[in-house]
Structures are given as C-alpha cells and as structure tokens.
Amino acid sequence: MYPFDISLYIKGTNEKTEPAAGYAVTIYLPIPEKLLNKKELLSVMHKSDSGVVTEITSRLLQKDGVWYLVFEASEFSPYALVVRNAGSYDESAGVPYFPDTNGNKVFVGFAANGKYIAPEGVTISVMHNDKSFTDITGHWATGYIGFVTEQEIFVGTGGNTFSPDTEMTRAMFATVIGRLYERSYGEIEASSTHAFTDCDYSAYYGKYAAWASENSIIGGVGDGKFAPDMLITREQVAVRLYRFADLLGGRAGGVFAPQETATRAEVSAILQRFVEVVLK
C-alpha cells in the first residue's frame, strides 16, 4: 500500500478548494517505475473524512510512453495506491496452503470464489482439509463452519466438537481475525508491549489481542484492560468489519439483533461472507 494525498488549489493562490457538488476532477496518476511490472494489479483506495474506505474505479492508460492510472476524484482526503496480490485456484481441488518455515501447512485465510490472497513469496498448493465435528449435524451454519475450519481460521473446541452455539468473547474474535489476517499477509509477531493488565499474553489469544489493539480493530475497555472474556455482540463484529463487507445477513425473520451476543456459528457465517466480499 502506497499512501498519497491529492489537493486542489484555486489557481494562483495557496487556497485549497473542492469541486462543486456533482462535479469531479480527472486524475492522471503516473505509475511508479518499480510498480510497472504489477500495473494490472493496482487499485486506488480512498478514505473519506468519516473513515470509510472504498475502492475507486480506475483504468490504465499509456500516454507518451508513460503509464497512468486514471480515475475521478470528487473528494480530497487521503488516498492509497494498493497492489493486489490475488492468485487463482481450483476450488474443486480444495483450499490453497503454503508451508511455513518448519514445513507445516498454513491454509490461506482470504480464499474464496477461486481467488486467494497469500503472503508474498510463498509457494501455493491446493488440498482438501475437511474437518469432522459431532455437534454440527443439521445445524443452520454447517456450511459456514466447514468454510472457516477448512481454512483453519476457526478450530474446534476439543473432542471433535465445534460448539456452534457458544457465545464469542473478545479474545476469541481477536484470534480469528488475527488468523484470517496472518494467513494471507504474513505471521503476526508477538508484541513486546503488554498494554493490558488483564491479558495473558502467553495464552492462545495473547499476540492477537495486542495486534488487534495496536491496529485499532479491538480497543481496550478502559483502565488498562482488554476484557478478553467479555462477550462480543453482532453489532461490534459488524463495526470491526464494516470497511470491507457490504452487508451482513440477519437472524431468522430478517432481524439483525445487533445488541445480542454473537455465537461461534454466527461469526463463522459473517467471516465467510466477509472473505467472499473481499475476493468477489
């Protein structure tokens, strides 16, 4: 990701301005030489004043020997040039994975619709990694659970059980989001900064809680505490994914029930939809 800023000035002055309502400015962004071999993978992202991040429609244009990304801008706040690193795979053959430094299989987090995002430089293979749980037969979320466990974003709770209706805690959610991230963008390293007095940083969730806090995904609850065992609501899950996901399905009857706590099954469904939106 390469951040940049666009400013529009009144001619002959240092006074910033913006296009009138309904108008836009056409931007010709020269592609840096070091990115020319990846020009087909470039996207322009915009962050509004309210914090919403969207992809801006752009096209490649070569003029006088120079390659440009051409797009329309109606707002002048932070932008970024993003290099997409999505590959493709045969879904019928399973899910993509790569070996870590110890030779263990690491299943890619963002993998759906025949496309995947993997850390740069890894060698991708594809295999089935189906899991078998005794407590999800006939459950409404069986398919979603299969998706997140095959990619090992979620793991079982022991004894061939998944516990689909167990409510999610902040520690659990930080962990699954962290796993989703690092299986596509590189391993999250344990932080040397232990900001929360109530976190066991040697526990399964420790490095993910620190990462989620440092990246403003899941903040503390005040007084130097993270509250790892506090239950997380569907609304809170949605807030943490809203920049990437267009919509989240509701509960039976079309009621979203945002204040109710989210179960492992519900978060499995939300994460599958989230991954599919990212890779649509």
Please characterize this protein's 3D structure.
By secondary structure, the chain is an alpha+beta fold. It has two domains: 2-84, Sandwich (Immunoglobulin-like), CATH 2.60.40; 88-278, no CATH class. The chain is built from five helices and 15 strands. The chain has helices spanning 142-150, 170-185, 206-214, 234-241, 264-278, and strands at residues 2-4, 8-9, 16-17, 25-30, 42-47, 53-56, 58-63, 66-73, 79-83, 86-88, 95-99, 105-107, 111-112, 115-117, 125-127. The strands form five sheets. It has a four-stranded antiparallel beta sheet, with no helix packed on it. It has a three-stranded antiparallel beta sheet with strand order 4-8-7, with no helix packed on it. Strand 13 and strand 14 form a beta hairpin. The protein starts with a strand and ends with a helix.
Keywords:
single chain; 280 residues; alpha+beta; Immunoglobulin-like; four-stranded antiparallel sheet; three-stranded antiparallel sheet; 5 helices; 15 strands; 22% strand
Summarize the structure.
With 280 residues, the chain is α+β, with helices and mostly antiparallel strands.
The number of helical segments is 5
Distance between the amino and carboxyl termini:
20 Å
Helix content: 10-25%
Q: Give the strand tally.
A: 15
Residue share in β-strands = 15-25%
| Computed Rg | 21 Å
